[in-house]
């Protein structure tokens, strides 16, 4: 179904690169049909072109008319200006995929011609290796065919979950931002382990394998994390000592707070944008 479809990424940052990398590696779409542009960083465009073989096009020279899918991959603060600059060139059949945290389909629909097909997407940077946990929520006018098309495309970068849009903030809090929590945890584990004199190279491999193994136990055994944790914890053993320290130092609370704050921030981004729209008269 993807066949000869053409995609343009507007925005060439870490998220665009992760998605491009995953899509190119999947071989479901030829690199020549994946276009990427940004605001001004030409060096970055050349870097992506050299690395993935995708045409990197200066913003003014990108022919949006010939695209089937347009992926919005800029920061939320830049979305309004971007939509303003493309809305007059959009064709009714074109599908807009937005990966922007906190930006609703309603907001996008209000800033493009009536009836435009829009899907809100929340991937994560593991898209780079085809291991993203990605959520999608379709806008009001999006056809079933375009939803299937988006799912097929996003399956190139990992697992895809269709969720109600009001759950996008929590999804962002656990899965969009999620990799960063694990990287932070791994950073702390590395720092402590280095004190032992083991080489960073071997420590990094050990920690990554430990995380992969734990995640795969959940995926493949279907067990709950609580049961799996209990299985590791021998009475009066090393894990019990470690977990007690984690609890004493607020480990659980720290994790729930991180998720709450990330989720709130996603919600706050949309509220801030709507307030600025009210000021500029786009809404209300
Ligand atoms: N990073 C992540 O893990 C995730 C990010 N996201 C979402 O992805 C989006 C991008 O994030 P990220 O890649 O980290 O951000 P970056 O800052 O790395 O990249 C932003 C890109 O947007 C470009 N840009 C800004 N304004 C315009 C414009 N008017 N026209 C064309 N290009 C423009 C920038 O170009 P230039 O450099 O030339 O200014 C840059 O290439 C965000 O909205 C974020 O919420 C979603 C899930 C995960
Ligand atoms: O930090 C951010 O806002 C983006 C969205 C999810 C992950 N990164």
UniProtKB/TrEMBL annotation:
Pathway: Amino-acid biosynthesis; L-proline biosynthesis; L-proline from L-glutamate 5-semialdehyde: step 1/1
Enzyme Commission numbers on file: 1.5.1.2
Domain of life: Bacteria
Keywords annotated in UniProt: Amino-acid biosynthesis, Cytoplasm, NADP, Oxidoreductase, Proline biosynthesis
Domain Pyrroline-5-carboxylate reductase catalytic N-terminal, residue spans: 6-102
Presence of the UniProt keyword Chloroplast in the record: no
Catalysis performed (reactions): L-proline + NADP(+) = (S)-1-pyrroline-5-carboxylate + NADPH + 2 H(+); L-proline + NAD(+) = (S)-1-pyrroline-5-carboxylate + NADH + 2 H(+)
Domain Pyrroline-5-carboxylate reductase dimerisation, first and last residues per copy: 165-268
MF terms in GO: pyrroline-5-carboxylate reductase activity
Subcellular location as annotated: Cytoplasm
Pfam families associated with the record: F420_oxidored, P5CR_dimer
Family the entry assigns: Belongs to the pyrroline-5-carboxylate reductase family.
HAMAP family listed in its UniProt record: P5C_reductase (MF_01925)
Role of this protein: Catalyzes the reduction of 1-pyrroline-5-carboxylate (PCA) to L-proline.
Identification of the protein by name: Pyrroline-5-carboxylate reductase
Species per Swiss-Prot/TrEMBL record: Neobacillus driksii
């Amino acid at each position: 179904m993807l066949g000869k479809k053409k995609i343009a990424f507007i925005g060439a940052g870490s998220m665009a690169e992760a998605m491009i990398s995953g899509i190119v590696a999947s071989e479901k779409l030829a690199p020549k049909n994946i276009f990427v542009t940004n605001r001004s960083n030409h060096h970055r465009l050349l870097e992506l072109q050299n690395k993935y073989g995708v045409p990197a096009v200066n913003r003014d020279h990108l022919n949006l008319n010939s695209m089937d899918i347009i992926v919005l991959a800029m920061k939320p603060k830049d979305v309004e200006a971007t939509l303003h600059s493309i809305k007059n060139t959009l064709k009714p059949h074109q599908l807009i995929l937005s990966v922007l945290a906190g930006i609703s389909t309603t907001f996008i629909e209000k800033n493009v011609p009536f009836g435009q097909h829009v899907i809100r997407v929340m991937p994560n940077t593991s898209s780079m290796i085809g291991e993203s946990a990605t959520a999608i929520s379709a806008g009001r006018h999006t056809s079933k065919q375009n939803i299937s098309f988006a799912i097929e495309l996003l399956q190139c970068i990992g697992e895809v979950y269709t969720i109600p849009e009001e759950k996008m903030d929590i999804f962002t809090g656990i899965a969009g931002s999620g990799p960063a929590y694990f990287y932070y945890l791994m950073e702390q584990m590395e720092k402590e382990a280095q004190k032992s004199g083991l080489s960073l190279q071997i420590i990094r491999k050990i920690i990554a394998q430990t995380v992969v193994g734990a995640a795969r136990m959940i995926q493949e055994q279907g067990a709950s994390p609580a049961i799996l944790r209990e299985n590791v914890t021998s009475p009066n053993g090393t894990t019990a000592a470690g977990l007690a320290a984690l609890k004493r130092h607020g480990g659980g609370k720290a994790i729930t707070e991180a998720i709450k704050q990330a989720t709130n921030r996603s919600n706050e981004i949309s509220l801030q944008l709507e307030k600025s729209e009210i000021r500029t008269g786009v809404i209300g």
